[in-house]
Amino acid sequence: MANSKTVIIKIKRQDNPNYKPYWEEFELPYRPGMNVTSSLMDIAANPITRQGKATAPVTYDSNCLEEVCGSCAMLVNGRARMACSALIDKLEQPVKLEPFSKFPVVRDLSVDRSVLFENLKKVKAWVPTDGTYDLGSGPRQSAEQQELNYPLSRCISCCCCMEACPQFNDKTGFVGAAAISQVRLFNNHPTGKALKIERLKALMGDGGIQECGYAQNCVEVCPKDIPLTKSIADVGGQVMWQAIKDLFRS
Ligand code: SF4
Ligand code: SF4
Ligand code: FES
Q: Is the pTM of this model over 0.90?
């Protein structure tokens, strides 16, 4: 901390996807309980750099402000995490903010994370309930099933796990831990399992589950403590069994 009354924030900025990034530094009055998002709000209210230069307010994503919507993910002091739950008191200063490095920058700290949604579509991460009429209630889930599935359903699509994963890059085309964990969730679901084979087939081959090097960075950074490595091991077993069945059928 510069002194006990101020907070220094260094931000990697980029005016549009084609421009070069540059750094700007801001010095803000300290308030107890402030977090990275509230600091960005303070900068927006008075966008003057530490050197006294007027600048454009910093672009960033946020919505719920309570680690539920998944929109505010960024690199805070080099670690993928949610800005709204990153308390300034717990961060080393100057606090360094950067956009995710593996996703296209839209502007400043805002990135395009649509690849996750494309990957979720690829693995059909939904319960098939199409129809124009009332399908009635689905099969009941046991308490044990609910206990297993609930933690998996807490994914907020923040993409922290993908940013931290050494295997998630253009070369591998790896779908990433979040999509794999959603396969586990929907394959466990009594109605969702209707698409189980299609999901497992989507995880075979290039970009599939075999790209995972089991480095476990994903589980370290997941803000919702989703048991991602267990999901990868579980779904890996399902994919293997499916591949063996396919072999005997062919
Ligand atoms: S275990 Fe490692 S390689 Fe596999 S998804 Fe997680 S971070 Fe990536
Ligand atoms: S699995 Fe965790 S880190 Fe990955 S997108 Fe979901 S909530 Fe974020
Ligand atoms: S603003 Fe919704 S998770 Fe941070």
A: yes
Residues 103 and 159 sit within 8 Å (Cβ to Cβ): yes
Query: To test the ligand 1 pocket, which listed residue (172, 175, 217, 221) has its Cβ within 8 A of the most ligand atoms?
Result: 217
- Mutational pocket test of ligand 2: of 75, 158, 184, 221, the residue with most ligand atoms within 8 Å of the beta carbon: 158
* Residue of 105, 182, 191, 118 lying closest to 151 (CA atoms): 182
Q: Above 50 in pLDDT, residue 1?
A: no
pLDDT over threshold 90, residue 10: yes
Could you tell me the distance, in angstroms and rounded to a whole number, from the CA of residue 176 to the centre of ligand 1?
7
Contact 126, 186 (CB under 8 A): yes
The mean pLDDT value of the chain amounts to: 95
